Amino acid sequence: MGAVVGTVLGIVPHVMHHIGLLAGAALITGAAGNALFYAVGLLFCVPMLRRLYRHFGSLWAPGIAVAVFTGLFSVSAFVIGPAISGADDAQAPTSPRSPAPVDEHGHTAGTGAGR
Fold first, then answer.
1. 77 in a structural domain
2. pTM higher than the cut 0.70
3. Bridge partners of residue 108, in order along the sequence
4. How far is Cα 33 from Cα 87, in angstroms, rounded to an integer?
5. Is the dihedral of CA 65, 66, 72, 73 positive or negative?
6. What is the dihedral of CA 31, 34, 40, 41, to 10 degrees?
7. What helix, strand, coil percent values describe the chain, rounded to 5?
8. Which domain holds residue 50?
9. Most CB atoms closer than 10 Å: which of 76, 92, 104, 112?
10. Are 83 and 67 in contact (CB under 8 A)?
11. Residue 62 located in a structural domain
């Protein structure tokens, strides 16, 4: 039974970054969804982080593990997720200024000397 629980707790952090993309988009969109699933993934990492601390006797190993988890989760959520979902295509950049109207002679309207 302990091996099964250990296996599940070992797999959950890895799977969380995949679930964060799908369930986060379906249930909670945007930064709030990603933050929620990051926190849940980090919570499931606690037993592994405790074992790393006991094994190495230092906070360096758990700190590196959290940094790796954060980096992989960030790449998955902010680079791979938008690339798969096409979120960048839906928000095409718009110009803050619209082009000035042009008259039949090719001059911009409203810039004549006599006006």
1. yes
2. no
3. 102
4. 15
5. positive
6. -140
7. 70, 0, 25
8. 2-87
9. 76
10. no
11. yes
In a domain, 72, yes or no: yes
pLDDT value at residue 61: 93
Distance CA 85, CA 103 (A): 42
Structure tokens that stand for 108 in this block: 């911009």
Helix (H, G, I), strand (E, B) or coil at 102: strand
- pLDDT value at 91 more than 90: no
C-alpha radius of gyration, the chain, whole number? 25
Query: In the chain, how many domains are there?
Result: 1
- What one-character-per-residue DSSP string does 31-63 give? HHHHHHHHHHHHHHHHHHHHHHHHHHSSSHHHH
Determine contact, residues 71/13, Cβ cutoff 8 Å: no
Query: How many angstroms from the chain centroid is the CA of residue 80?
Result: 8
CA atoms of 17 and 89, how far apart (whole Å): 23
